[in-house]
Specification:
CATH architecture of the largest domain: Alpha Horseshoe
Distance between the termini: 120 Å
Number of strands: 2
Strand content: under 5%
CATH class of the largest domain: Mainly Alpha
């Protein structure tokens, strides 16, 4: 309860006396025997005193009233922080800059003239140079800001430089930003120097809490990344602030895996299986493999979208030493990894389908599907096998048919189906018999064209042609729509092979006689 002297100060302050308002503001700012400490009340009386040009009042506001309390009245309070900064208070300059510039990214928090913005930037840089982490972090985020400084006050510091200073000062957001930059750029040594002490602190904190509290996502990613680099031997030639403890990387993996980090779960599964992702045995950790634990961890990682985990599971299920060896399960996990885009799995699926083509001749279509996907990811082995399975033939019988279309477009306009067949021959290198007899809708498998006319032309062989480009895909879609609902067999509107061949020769003349057909009626068993 206020004493007699304090009651007199209150009366005089309410009467508008600047000295009493300043004194009452001090009492509420620091607390007294009769009045409790109250920063909002202190700000109220100090601000009233400052309006009466009381210099100590705005100095107290600038040095003691925090940003959070000043933000609701930023426009009215910013001038007092500015005056306190002019009087030499770096802290007041920092709050002034924060009120004027806002978060440093979206622009000014209050409307301000160019001169005021430049002054706020100078105040922010002064605070940053004085070692205020918040100022350093704010400057780091203002990548487009160029502080206007008087001559001879020091060289300007880049946004990246302020970011590193803020990280060194312990600003968590800045530390996270610097670590993300180092990780993205592949600066592993720099990452480990900064990240390893932080990872050890996370482990110590988790141990002290005895697993009661969950780790933050950033801490989990930190543990996983540090463990990954240590497993790769990246941290052997740098000073990390102390030697590595035995199995320290394993400790990081275990903690991150328990917090559902998929990369940590993959690493734990491979450690338990004593193998790499490709199934090859490794000696890390020694001892026998524990496939039961490995399957548990790898399944958890796979369910979180990690294709390598499913691929590793497929390697486990085909191991002879695994008591529950199951080839069907191995194939199922392999295809799951391939569907998720894992290149090695796609390549192996392609090999498996190609080897099984004698069981089902359509397996070559499946093989081409997976090999094309692996090839798109840069697999030279897949590219070589594709050239073997589905070569684009360029010998005269396969190159000349498509050329018949050139120079005869007007003649062929009256026969759109024949024109479309010749266009198809030019796109995919079809022989004359293939072009005339191909069942276009049935041949289109999306990623490839299955050319199979053996039922009508005994000398032919079944083969595949890849659909390589978007242009080929669009053209094939257009031509396939033209043949929708049309019988492509001998009883259809195009007639039998002899009739189609006769129509072609009639329209294009001797150019259609480039391929020796022999006795067509005898070979295809059709009457004229």
């Amino acid at each position: 309860m206020a004493n007699r002297e304090e009651l007199a100060i209150i009366r005089n302050a309410r009467a508008g006396q600047a000295a009493a308002q300043l004194e009452l503001g001090k009492l509420y700012l620091f607390g007294s025997a009769g009045l409790p400490q109250s920063l909002p009340t202190a700000l109220h009386w100090l601000e009233r005193a400052a309006r009466q040009d009381c210099r100590p009042a705005w100095q107290l506001i600038g040095n003691h009233i925090p940003l959070a309390l000043a933000q609701p009245g930023a426009a009215a309070l910013a001038p007092w922080y500015e005056r306190a900064y002019d009087d030499g208070s770096v802290h007041a300059g920092l709050v002034f800059a924060q009120l004027v510039l806002g978060d440093g990214v979206s622009g000014a928090a209050i409307p301000a003239e160019t001169a005021v913005l430049a002054k706020a930037l100078r105040a922010l840089e002064d605070a940053a140079r004085a070692g205020f982490p918040d100022a350093q972090w704010l400057l780091a985020r203002r990548r487009d800001a160029v502080p206007v400084r008087p001559a001879g006050t020091g060289a300007p510091v880049s946004a990246q430089g302020w970011l590193r200073r803020a990280a060194d000062s312990g600003v968590a957001e800045a530390q996270s930003a610097v670590l993300d930059q180092a990780w993205t750029a592949g600066h592993w040594d720099d990452y480990l120097v900064r990240a390893l002490p932080l990872a050890r602190a996370v482990v110590h904190m988790a141990a002290s809490q005895d697993g009661i509290h969950r780790l933050a996502p950033g801490d989990i990613a930190l543990l996983s990344r540090v463990a990954r680099l240590l497993d790769e031997g990246r941290g052997t030639d740098i000073r990390h602030g102390g030697p590595l403890a035995p199995d320290e990387a394993l400790c990081f993996w275990e903690l991150a895996a328990a917090e559902h980090d998929r990369y940590a779960q993959l690493a734990m599964g491979l450690r338990c299986a004593r193998m790499g992702v490709d199934g090859r045995r490794i000696a890390a950790g020694g001892g026998a493999a524990n496939f039961k634990k490995a399957i548990r961890w790898l399944t958890l990682a796979g369910e979180q979208g990690l294709a390598q985990a499913w691929y590793a599971l497929s390697r486990i299920y085909i191991k002879p030493e695994f008591s529950q060896r199951n080839v069907a399960d191995a194939q199922r996990y392999l295809e799951r990894a391939a569907e998720m885009g894992y290149r090695d799995a796609q390549l192996e699926c392609g090999h498996n389908a190609w080897r099984a083509r004698r069981e089902n001749e359509n397996n070559d279509v499946r093989a081409v599907y997976w090999l094309q996907k692996a090839s798109a990811q840069g697999s030279t082995e897949a590219q070589a096998l594709l050239r073997k399975i589905a070569p684009r033939l360029s010998t005269p019988p396969y190159a000349e048919t498509g050329k018949l279309l050139a120079g005869h477009e007007k003649l062929l306009q009256a026969h759109p189906l024949l024109q479309a067949r010749l266009e198809l021959a030019g796109l995919f290198g079809l022989s004359r018999a293939e072009a005339l007899l191909l069942d276009v809708p049935a041949a289109d498998h999306g990623h490839c064209l299955v050319v199979d006319i053996r039922a009508s032309y005994g000398r032919s062989k079944r083969r595949l042609v890849l659909v390589d480009t978007a242009q080929e895909r669009h053209a094939l879609d257009r031509i396939a729509r033209l043949f929708e609902g049309i019988d492509c067999g001998p009883s259809g509107p195009e007639g039998n092979y002899r009739q189609r061949l006769y129509r072609l020769r009639t329209l294009v003349g001797s150019a259609g006689k480039t391929e020796d057909e022999g006795d067509a009626a005898a070979e295809i068993g059709l009457a004229a």
